[in-house]
Every structure is written in structure tokens, then in C-alpha cells.
Amino acid sequence: MEKKILQEYTLDELKCLMDQRSVKRFRAEQIYSFACNYTPIAEMSNLPKELREQLTEEFDDRPVEIYKKYESKDGTVKFLFKLQDNNIVEGVLMKYKYGNTICISTQVGCAMGCVFCASGIDGKIRNLKAGEMVGEVLAVNQLLGGGLKEDRKITNIVLMGSGEPLDNFDNVARFIELISYKSSINISPRNISLSTCGLAPKIKKLADLDLQITLTISLHATTDENRRAIMKVANVYSLADLFESIHYYFNKTHRRVVFEYILSKGNVSKADAKRIASLCKGLSCHVNMIPINKTPNSPLVPASDIKTREFFEELKANGISATTRRTLGSDIDGACGQLRRRVLSEENNT
Ligand code: SAH
Predict the structure, then answer these.
(1) Where in the chain is the domain with CATH 3.20.20.70?
(2) How far is the CA of 261 from the centre of ligand 1 (A)?
(3) HEC string for 69-109
(4) Would you call 22 exposed, middle or buried from its count of C-beta atoms within 10 A (0-12, 13-18, 19+)?
(5) Atom nearest to 298 CA in ligand 1
(6) How far apart are CA 314 and CA 252, in angstroms?
(7) Catalytic residue positions?
(8) How far is the CA of 117 from the centre of ligand 1 (A)?
(9) Per residue of the chain (350 residues), what is the pLDDT tens digit?
(10) Where in the chain is the domain with CATH 1.10.150.530?
(11) If you take atom 9 of ligand 1, which residue's CA is the nearest one?
């Protein structure tokens, strides 16, 4: 029988589970706080030995292990996480003045097939479970010496690693519930960003959860034709569909929406900037301009500095706030899916 992941439960649920096993309720609190600290069951020192044995039979205590770790000169740390079935996913720790942000993966591989992205090259292998996503955060929090609530070392989470979070909707929603749970590491949904290539109906479903997370949209083009050339999802949902769902999200949550926009030749004209402004009318939003990270097979050509500047000025002139994303960790294959691919192919060649 497949074991249950200990980090897949809230404290209240764990109390019920322990009740069913006639384990005293205060034990559930001890187990819960150990689990959130990512302590292995064998090291849950104040539990009786028999209880530890019983738990070990039924539960996985560490759904994710840090398999490899690469530190960039700028302090960014890239992780490869190993899952119980030996699949590998990646995460990135970015250190800012205000705190530490972890970028985590939501799927092994990705089914979306964006031409510029390394995560989708081999398609989707599987969804991550909610407890595995929690494990990515807790493993790094533990490595940094962090604890729970105010003692946490991770302050922000971005769902921008490999995978399409809205293609794993229920597990991602459950992950947000677990990681923001009051007696856990307790990261506020306001400090969580979810990035999507634009699954319009799922954006509405997310809005209906009323979570207060930041919605981030991988936009990358401003006409259906240009978007279809680089993102398969644009064949299913037009820009009109996408923006209808974004407006729905904004009207429901009143949260500022963030757009990610790769700076590629052909998509940074003044007309593109104007179209962004028109699509965003009525929204509070921000555009993150992202220099392209070159990946194998990507047909995209980086925009010139002059074109980028003009695009930025035109956005500004049309009342759209925009910044260029700092490229952190480029010396360690910081972009989506790149590190996993490189390490896996090196290992297969040895
Ligand atoms: N599937 C989600 C989240 C993962 S991708 C999404 O599409 O948003 C996270 C961000 O990295 C997206 O904005 C994506 O477009 C961007 N990205 C992926 N590959 C990139 C590359 N080679 N260069 C620059 N940005 C890239």
C-alpha cells in the first residue's frame, strides 16, 4: 500500500487521524510540528518508540529530499529535489532584502509545450502531490535553519518552476491551504504567486477560491497569431478568452495582476505595448520584462536593447508599470527546466 505523506494534513486532520488510531491528541500536535519542521519520524524524539514505528509504517515523513544544490555567485541557490519515485524536479531560492523567495515546481515536466521553455521538452510525466510541493518548501526552510511561523526562513513562494500549476489545480489549491495553515510555516497567500500560461477557465475557478494570491500570467505576445506561434495554449484560449478570465479574477480579488513578457524580437514593438495597455484597461497590473534564457530548440531571438527600451517607454507612456526582471542565477541554469535536463542528461551519459 502506498504510504500517506505526513505533510499532506493540517493539524486538525492529523488530530482526527490520530483519534481513529487511539493515539492521544497532544501527540498529533507534536507530530504535526515535527512534520512541519521536516524532522524524520525516527528523530521525533519525544514520541514513544512504538508510535514512531506505527507512523513509519503508514506515513512518508520526507516526500522530497534535496538531491543537488548549486549556489550562484549572486547568492541564488538552485535545487534538484528527488521525489520518492526517483523523479527529479527543480526549485530556486532567491535572496532579497525583504526575505527569501522559493520558486517551486508543480509537475514533473510539463504538457504545455511553450517553444522557449525547457520544462516541456519531454512532456508531462506526472503531477506533484500537495505534500510534495509542501516538501519542497520545508526542505529548503530546514536547510536554512528555519522553523515554523515567525521562525520561518522562507517568506515568499512563487509557483514558477517546472509545470503548469493550473493543470494540477486541486493539488496546488490544497498546497496553498497547507502552507498557509496557521500552525504550520504559515506563509500568507499574499506572499504566494502563481504563474500560468493562461488556462482561462481555471483562472476563473481560482478566482472563485478567493485566495488573495498574486496571479501571474505568462503573456509573451499580444496578438493571437504571434502567441500561437510560441505557446500551444493560445490555440485553445484566445487573448480575448484569457483577458476575460483575468478581468474576472481581478474584479473578484482586487489583486494586482502581474504579466511576464519575454523580450523577443518580433514581440516588443510599440504596437505591442499599446495592445498590452488596451488589454489591461481596468486592471491594476505590472509587466515583468524577462530577458530570454536560451534553451535548446528555442526559435526565439532576443530583442535588441534599443527595441526593449522603446517598448518600455511606450508601456510607460500608456500608463503601464513595467520593470526588467533581474536575471538571478544565470550561471547555474536558472531558467525553468534547464538544470534538471542538463543534470539528467549528464547522468545518463556516465
Ligand atoms: N507554466 C507556468 C509556470 C512555469 S514557467 C507558466 O507558464 O507561467 C515560469 C515563467 O518562466 C514563465 O513566465 C515562463 O514563460 C518563463 N520562462 C520559461 N522558459 C523561459 C526562458 N527560456 N526564458 C525566459 N523565461 C522563461
Answers:
(1) 64-348
(2) 9
(3) EEECCCCCEEEEEEECCCCEEEEEEEEECCEEEEECCCEEE
(4) exposed
(5) 22
(6) 29
(7) 90, 336
(8) 6
(9) 789 999 999 999 999 999 999 999 899 999 999 999 999 999 999 999 999 999 999 999 999 999 999 998 888 999 999 999 999 999 999 998 889 999 999 999 999 999 999 898 889 999 999 999 999 999 999 999 999 999 999 999 999 999 999 999 999 999 999 999 999 999 999 999 999 999 999 999 999 999 999 999 999 999 999 999 999 999 999 999 999 999 999 999 999 999 999 999 999 999 999 999 999 999 999 999 999 988 877 889 999 999 999 999 999 999 999 998 766 566 666 555 666 666 666 665 54
(10) 4-60
(11) 160
| Residue 187 neighbours by CB distance under 10 Å | 21
The verdict on the CB of residue 60 being under 6 Å from ligand 1 is no
196 in ligand 1 pocket by Cβ < 6 Å? yes
Instruction: CATH number for 4-60: choose from 1.10.150.530, 1.20.1250.20, 1.10.1610.10, 1.10.1040.10.
Output: 1.10.150.530
Could you tell me if the CB of 116 is within 6 A of ligand 1?
Answer: yes
pTM: 0.94
The CATH fold assigned to 64-348 is TIM Barrel (3.20.20)
